[in-house]
Amino acid sequence: MSRPGYHHGDLREGLVRAARAAVEAGGPEAVSLRELAQSLGVSTAAPYRHFRDRRALLAAVAAEGFSELVAAYKRARAQGGVPMVVMRNTARVYLALAFAQPGMFRLMFDSDILSGEPPPSLTDPAMEAWVEFCRTVSIVDPTADERTVKRRAVTGWSTLHGYVTLAQAGRLAGFMTEPLTEADLLEAILDKALTEA
Amino acid sequence: MSRPGYHHGDLREGLVRAARAAVEAGGPEAVSLRELAQSLGVSTAAPYRHFRDRRALLAAVAAEGFSELVAAYKRARAQGGVPMVVMRNTARVYLALAFAQPGMFRLMFDSDILSGEPPPSLTDPAMEAWVEFCRTVSIVDPTADERTVKRRAVTGWSTLHGYVTLAQAGRLAGFMTEPLTEADLLEAILDKALTEA
DNA sequence: TCCCAAGTGTTAGCGGCGCTTACATTGCGC
DNA sequence: GCGCAATGTAAGCGCCGCTAACACTTGGGA
Predict the structure, then answer these.
(1) What pLDDT, in 10s, does the model give residues B24-67?
(2) Cβ atoms of residues A31 and A37 within 8 Å
(3) pLDDT digit string (tens) for A29-65?
(4) CA-to-CA distance for B168 and A160, rounded, in angstroms?
(5) Gap from A66 CA to D25 C1', in Å?
(6) 3-class DSSP string for A27-67
(7) Which of B113, B156, B107 is nearest to B135 (CA)?
(8) Interfacial B residues in 70-99 facing A (CB < 8 Å)
(9) Cβ neighbours of residue B139 under 8 Å, at least 6 residues apart?
């Protein structure tokens, strides 16, 4: 972390890495440009040479998250198996992201953080994630037309997303007295959401 | 809004009202205690006589939101009709809250805003909302045991919540090219989520 | 080879924020 | 009528995002 010369070397990359660490440690709101700059041994103004503002840095981190989500979706499908198993593994990918990296998850999906039109660099991987998810949905029922696939994808993703979001916001605590396992819920949710209609 | 004397009259109530207006205008992050104090013609330290910190004020606003949600749920059920119609109207209540008062909705459900253990004043109405929702779910199928009702309620609410959250975060924009109406989605979602399993 | 322009870093500072401490005023219950 | 709790104020701390003006470094063209 020491830096001999006047220039840092690759401050941009360093900022993204540090910001990501902060996001995963304390959530998006824990990212402070001043703090990051200090921890990288750089003045508080330096980050603005590489990112227009705080949101641009967060957008870069979120873009990484979406890229990795897409990659994980592809891996789940490449792993093969009965279509319904692939679908289930894909859902598990999403749940894993949400529960293993809640900070990153919130950065990617909370509405207030990246409000306004996100930069295209974010839009692209995010859209790709939809495409990948749809592809898996279409495997479950190859006869479905595109419109139906989209509807099922939105429904299924919404269910997963809503469950995760409510859980993370603590809105299920105290209500779900019987400890339904995530696997239980996943089955209950997916078997209904994606097999018919 | 003018205040002759030294004391404000009912600063607490004024703060909640102003905060709520700010939330509905610009979202929870638009609430600044200093700004609210100034707009109420009061010093910047005055709000802290009534709320421990910013989160406590937001929690009070959120509590209002939950109370009103509960009341709306009850109204939907009191309105009567075939069970499935009641269920549908209840879902509409939730969608209406989300789309007509997006700021309040985010305040109530975004995870970062009221993180940590919420004060009991918030916990209570929030839990009541679950109870009311479950009651309506149980009407659809009165033979279901409590555990099943809870599972269906969590599933259904999750689907609604996820759809709304994704929509508000702009994560559906550009993907749903065919403009499915909300009514379409509501049917697609609810008919699957709540009628069986 | 020199030199200059682009890139990258620094210093200093503006305005805003949440929150605290110490002090001032008020008005209600005794 | 008085004393005390409730409620207000002024001032200030430390943090934040962001900007403007200036300094250093480096690489590529004359």
Answers:
(1) 999 999 999 999 999 999 999 999 999 999 999 999 999 999 99
(2) no
(3) 999 999 999 999 999 999 999 999 999 999 999 999 9
(4) 16
(5) 36
(6) CHHHCCHHHHHHHCCCCCCHHHHCCCCHHHHHHHHHHHHHH
(7) B156
(8) none
(9) B77, B83, B86, B87
Q: Which amino acid is at B92?
A: R
First to last CA, chain B: 55
CB of B50 nearer than 7 A to strand D: yes
Whether A17 has its CB under 8 Å from any CB of chain B: the answer is no
Q: How confident is the model over A134-177, as pLDDT tens digits? A: 999 999 889 999 888 888 888 889 989 999 999 998 888 878 77
A157 with B158: Cβ contact below 8 A = no
> What global pTM score does this model have?
0.91
- Can you tell me which residue has the tokens 């605590």? A173
C-alpha dist (Å) from residue A166 to A122, A173, B114, B139: 24, 9, 13, 23
Give the C-alpha separation, A185 to B153, whole Å.
12
Q: Is residue A28 within 8 Å of residue A115, measured between CB atoms?
A: no
Determine how many CB atoms are found less than 10 A away from the CB of residue B16. 20
Plot region of B119 (φ>0 → left; ψ -120 to 50 → alpha; else → beta):
beta
